[in-house]
């Protein structure tokens, strides 16, 4: 009777013989009785050059995933005529995918992802009509997507992402009517999407990001009502968001950033009760952020920067209890920063820069327990810097520049001992002495206090700020000696004028 390799007690020593180039023989002495080899994560090293495939006529399962195998995939692998499952992923195989792999007519699963494979996708992979899963991602494959892949009518998952594939997406991919996962991101694909893509109504994951695809988004992208993750960022898509997307309540993740899309965000997007992540940045969307915030209940990241959004920030955003990232920068927002944003206890990044926001910075922002990035620059904010910001002990970056903030820097800012990336207060109306306590920010790398009305001397405590790389104190009324610090010694004269 055939033995399953995963149950053979002597399997490990047997495979060691195999990779030393010895002739293959069954552990139990019955040649050809092995039906299954599974050595994923086994620490195997070497090539398959001496793998005697012809000695395994009954092998249906070969899994060598996540080892350190290298060299070419031997064409003689086609001798495994009964193979249904082949996983050579996460190794270091190089060279071409052998053409003869198209002879493995019983293959149901082919996984060659995360290797160093090059060349084009073999046309005769289209002969593997039993394939339900084809993973060739994260290699160096080039050329175009073969139209012959459209013959794989049983395919449910196709991943070709992170290669060097060029050309347009063939219309034949629209024949995968049972396809659930289509991942093409990180290639050099161009041209418009074929209209046949609208036939893929069973998709749950659809990834097109980081190509140069143009034209309109697919009109029936969520016609099946089960799409969960749609990423089309960093392409050349134009036009409006498809109407069907407004009612796609199955969405958990949506990325349309860095395109040329237009439309009204309050009309073109609906209520998404399962949505976790949305990024619409770097487009030409207009309209107002809906006060209903129906998409925000489970949201962890909301990014709508670099659009033409108007109106006020709705206070209801403060009800998005899971929000980690809120980026509304580079829009045309007006009004006050809602104090309710202080309720976002999970917030890590708050970026509202380059808008027309006015009035004071809410004291409640200082009650956020975990913010690392706070950027309110280039608005019309007035009043003092809240001393409560000194309680945001995990801040890495604080930018309040280009506003109309006044009074002195609160000494409590020195409590931000995690501040490393930068402290930027340039172009405000701040005055008085620079607090000596800022010298406690010993890991700070960039300090910009220029274009204010500071007076007095530069604190000698700045001698201790040894991590400083860039400093600018120009356009103030400062006097006295410079700190004995490399950043000050190497700064250009313009930094003190």
UniProtKB/TrEMBL annotation:
It catalyses: L-seryl-[protein] + ATP = O-phospho-L-seryl-[protein] + ADP + H(+); L-threonyl-[protein] + ATP = O-phospho-L-threonyl-[protein] + ADP + H(+). One of its GO terms (cellular component) is membrane. It comes from the Eukaryota. It is a single-pass type I membrane protein. Keywords: ATP-binding, Glycoprotein, Kinase, Leucine-rich repeat, Membrane, Nucleotide-binding, Phosphoprotein, Receptor, Repeat, Serine/threonine-protein kinase, Signal, Transferase, Transmembrane, Transmembrane helix. It is an enzyme of class 2 (transferase). Its EC number is 2.7.11.1. Coiled coil: none annotated. Its main location: membrane. InterPro entries: Leu-rich_rpt, Leu-rich_rpt_typical-subtyp, LRR_dom_sf. It holds the Pfam family LRR_1. One of its GO terms (molecular function) is protein serine/threonine kinase activity. The keyword Signal applies. It is found in: Membrane. PANTHER family: OS10G0469600 PROTEIN (PTHR48065). This is non-specific serine/threonine protein kinase.
């Amino acid at each position: 009777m055939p033995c399953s390799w995963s149950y053979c007690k002597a399997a490990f020593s047997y495979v060691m013989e195999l990779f030393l180039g010895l002739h293959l023989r069954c552990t139990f002495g019955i040649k050809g009785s092995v039906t299954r080899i599974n050595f994923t994560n086994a620490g195997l090293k070497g090539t398959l050059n001496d793998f005697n495939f012809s000695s395994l006529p009954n092998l249906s399962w070969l899994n060598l995933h996540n080892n350190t195998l290298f060299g070419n995939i031997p064409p003689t692998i086609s001798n495994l005529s009964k193979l249904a499952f082949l996983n050579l992923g996460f190794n270091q195989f190089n060279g071409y995918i052998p053409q003869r792999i198209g002879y493995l007519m019983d293959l149901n699963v082919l996984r060659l992802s995360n290797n160093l494979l090059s060349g084009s996708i073999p046309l005769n992979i289209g002969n593997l009509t039993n394939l339900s899963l084809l993973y060739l991602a994260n290699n160096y494959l080039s050329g175009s997507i073969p139209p012959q892949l459209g013959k794989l009518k049983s395919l449910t998952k196709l991943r070709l992402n992170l290669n060097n594939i060029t050309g347009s997406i063939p219309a034949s991919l629209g024949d995968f009517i049972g396809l659930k996962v289509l991942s093409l991101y990180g290639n050099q694909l161009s041209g418009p999407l074929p209209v046949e893509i609208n036939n893929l109504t069973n998709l749950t994951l659809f990834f097109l990001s980081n190509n140069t695809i143009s034209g309109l988004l697919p009109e029936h992208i969520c016609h099946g009502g089960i799409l969960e993750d749609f990423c089309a960022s960093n392409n050349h898509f134009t036009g409006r968001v498809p109407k069907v997307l407004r009612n796609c309540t199955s969405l958990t993740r949506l990325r349309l950033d860095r395109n040329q899309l237009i439309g009204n965000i309050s009309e073109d997007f609906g209520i998404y009760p399962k949505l976790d992540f949305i990024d619409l940045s770097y487009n030409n969307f207009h309209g107002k952020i809906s006060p209903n915030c129906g998409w925000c209940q489970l949201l962890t990241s909301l990014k709508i920067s670099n659009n033409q959004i108007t109106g006020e920030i709705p206070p209801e955003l403060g009800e998005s209890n899971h929000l980690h990232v809120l980026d509304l920068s580079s829009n045309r927002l007006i009004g006050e920063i809602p104090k309710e944003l202080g309720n976002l206890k999970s917030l890590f990044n708050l970026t509202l820069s380059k808008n027309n926001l006015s009035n004071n910075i809410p004291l409640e922002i200082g009650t956020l327990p975990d913010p690392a990035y706070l950027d309110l620059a280039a608005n019309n904010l007035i009043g003092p810097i809240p001393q409560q910001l000194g309680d945001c002990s995990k801040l890495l970056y604080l930018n309040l520049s280009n506003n109309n903030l006044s009074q002195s820097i609160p000494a409590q800012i020195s409590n931000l001992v995690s501040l490393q990336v930068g402290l930027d207060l340039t172009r405000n109306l701040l005055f008085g002495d620079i607090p000596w306590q800022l010298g406690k920010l010993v890991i700070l790398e960039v300090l910009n206090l220029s274009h204010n009305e500071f007076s007095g001397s530069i604190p000698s405590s700045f001698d201790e700020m040894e991590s400083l790389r860039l400093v600018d104190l120009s356009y103030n009324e400062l006097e006295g000696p410079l700190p004995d610090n490399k950043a000050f010694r190497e700064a250009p004269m313009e930094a003190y004028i």
